[in-house]
Amino acid sequence: MTDADSIGESEDASGGDAATAPAGSVADRLESRLAEALEHRDAVAFVHVGSPRDPGLRYCQVALAEPEERSDQSVVEREQPLTAVAFDGDTREWLTATAADASPHPARVLASQLADRVASGTVLTPARLPHDAALYLEEAGFEPASTDVLERARAAKTPAERERIAAAQTAAGAGIRRGAALLADATVDDGHLVADGDAVTPARLRRAIDEGIVAAGAFPAGNTVVNPDSGHAPSSRDATVAAGGADAADEPLRPAEPIVLETAPRGPDGYHGGLVRTLVVDGDGGRERRAHVGATQSFRSAAAMLTADSESVTAVEADLEAEVRAFGFEDPDAVATRVGGVGLEPRERPLAGGDEIESGSVVRLESAVRVEGDRWLRIADLLVKGDEGERATYLSAPSRSLEPRALLEE
Fold first, then answer.
1. Backbone φ, ψ for residue 364 (5° rounding)
2. All residues at 6 or more sequence positions from 167 whose CB lies less than 8 Å from its CB, including other chains
3. CA dihedral sign of residues 352, 357, 363, 367
4. CATH number among 3.30.1120.10, 3.40.50.880, 2.60.40.10, 3.90.230.10, domain 159-408
5. Residue-range domain boundaries for the chain
6. What is the pTM of this model?
7. 3-state SS assignment for residue 247
8. pLDDT 10s digits, 151-195
C-alpha cells in the first residue's frame, strides 16, 4: 500500500500552488526555488528518494506538511522505510509515495504516476539519489539530471526554522551548563579533578552534558565531544588510546588545562544547535587567557562584518583568524577557524569557500587557538544573519568565560 495509491488526495493535502503556502514558509521558499530551477533547466519535475533520516527528504516533507499546519515533528518521526517525492513543475503540485519492504519500490510507483502526467523529459534530482531510483525513472522515460537546488534552498532559514534552531541551541546551553556545574564542584586530588568522590573524566563529563540536553527536551544525537582532536573526532565516545594503554575517555582530567566541551543536539523537530566552550579549573592565566581574549574578540568582529554586508564563508573564516592572530598567535598552525550552516544537519550550506552567507542564514562560527602541544582553546556559537537592515545576532548561549562557575551565574 502506498501514498501514491490515492495521489490526488495527497496532492490536495500537500500544497499545490506555492501561493497557498504561508509567506516565508519552507514550502514557499522551496517551491519557488524548484520552479526557477526547473524552468532554467527545461526540466519537468524535481524528484528525491530517501529514508526518513535523509535531511533533504525531511526538508521536502516539512514543505509538504506546512499547508496543513502540521508540526514537522510528525513528518520526521514517522517510521517509513523509504519515501519518494516529486514536485511537478507545470502544476506546482507535490506527489509522494512510500512502500514497505514487500511492496513495489516507491520510486517505481512515483515514476509511473509522474509519467501519466508529463510522459517524459528531464527530471532534476539530488546528486546522491539512490542508483535504483534513477533506474526506475529512466525506465519510465525520464532523464535524471543532478542539481543542488535543494541544498541551496536550505541555506537560508525561515523564521520558524530559526526558532527551532534557537530551541535546540537552548538545549545545547543547558547541557554545557550541566557540564560546567560538574567542573565548578570539582576539587584537585593527586593532580586530577574529582567531584563527589569520583574522578572527572571525559566520559563522565559527556554524560553530564547529555543529561542536561535531554532534560531540556532535545537529543544529544551522538554529537557531544569532550576534548576533540584537531579533526573534531569524538574522543569521548570513540576514545583513542592514551599512554599506558588506558582508555582516554576514562582518564581523569587535570586542573589548569583547557577542557573543550562540544555539542550539537537535535531538537524534536529535527533541527540542530551547535555550541563549543572551553573551561579551565584552577587556571593560572598565561597563554590560554590571551587565546581566550583573541577568540572572543573574533566573534565581535564577525557579527559586525555580517551586519554590514553578505559575505562568503571564506571571508568570515579569514576575518575570525585575523582577529585571533592580532593577539600574537603568528605560528601557521596556531589558529583554526571554521564556518558552516546549521539546520537539519549539524553542518550544511553555506559550508565552504565561496558559499555566501545570505540573509536568514544561521551559521556556526568557531575560533580555535593552540595553547600548547595538542591542547586547544575552542569557542563556537550560532549567529543569525538578519534580514536586510537587521543586525546579525548570536543565539542565546552560556558565557564564553573560561571559569566554569561563570556559566552558572547568568
1. -95, 120
2. 217, 218, 267, 271
3. positive
4. 3.90.230.10
5. 3-153, 159-408
6. 0.86
7. strand
8. 999 999 999 999 999 999 999 999 999 999 999 999 999 999 999
